[in-house]
Design brief:
- The protein has 175 residues and is α/β, with parallel strands linked by helices.
- Helices cover 25% and strands 33% of the residues.
- It has helices at residues 28-40, 57-67, 108-111, 127-138, 171-174, and strands at 10-14, 17-20, 48-52, 71-74, 86-90, 99-103, 115-123, 142-152, 159-165, 167-169.
- The protein has a five-stranded parallel β-sheet, sandwiched between helices. Strands 1-2-10 form a three-stranded antiparallel β-sheet. Strands 5-6 form a two-stranded antiparallel ribbon.
- Helix 1 (28-40) crosses helix 2.
- The longest helix is centred in the N-terminal third of the chain and has 13 residues, at 28-40.
- The radius of gyration is 16 Å and the shape is globular.
- Bound molecules: 1-O-pyrophosphono-5-O-phosphono-alpha-D-ribofuranose.
- 1-O-pyrophosphono-5-O-phosphono-alpha-D-ribofuranose (PRP) binds at residues 52-56, 76, 92-95, 120-129.
Amino acid sequence: MGPVTRELPIVEVAPGVSVALFNMLGDTEVTEAAGAELARMLPAGVDVLVTPEVKALSLAHVISRESGKPYIVIRKTQKPYMVEPVAREVVSITTGKPQLLVLDGFDVSKIRGHKVAIVDDVVSSGGTLHSLRQIIEEVGGEVAAVIAVFTEGQERPEVTALGHLPLFPSEAERS
Ligand SMILES: O=P(O)(O)OC[C@H]1O[C@H](OP(=O)(O)OP(=O)(O)O)[C@H](O)[C@@H]1O
């Protein structure tokens, strides 16, 4: 990202599949650099950012600060204080088992009738993106942009990203 570089460790996330693990959580320098760059790439007309917890949360904060657009966090646990939550199950490449994506009903009015940019750190299998889209459209929002630091695996022209990461065959597959 700009002048900021990182070596990414290769980590096996499923039998036969390894990724270059990009974890920006707690990395202020990367988060600030990527957030500033992605904020400049945000298309005109976007009203609100929507991000899944947790690794992309600080990225959304920086893009929000830089662009002046508010952001909403889709949680991965349903909380007792939520009002009529809207939930979808998802399996992401790095977690490999079902997780929940939950929109607090309190935030629905900030999405309904608005143009939304989905913000994530990585779009890989697309499972998280698919479920986020479903939730946003179910409550009457329009996904106007998808913003990520990296796409991974397959090319995704619909995603505005700073770079692309390959998937790696695991050791056992190579030998
Ligand atoms: O395109 P996909 O295959 O769905 O993968 C991308 C998602 O996976 C990762 O989250 P993860 O499940 O690791 O959760 P975390 O951010 O809570 O650690 C990443 O932050 C994306 O949200």
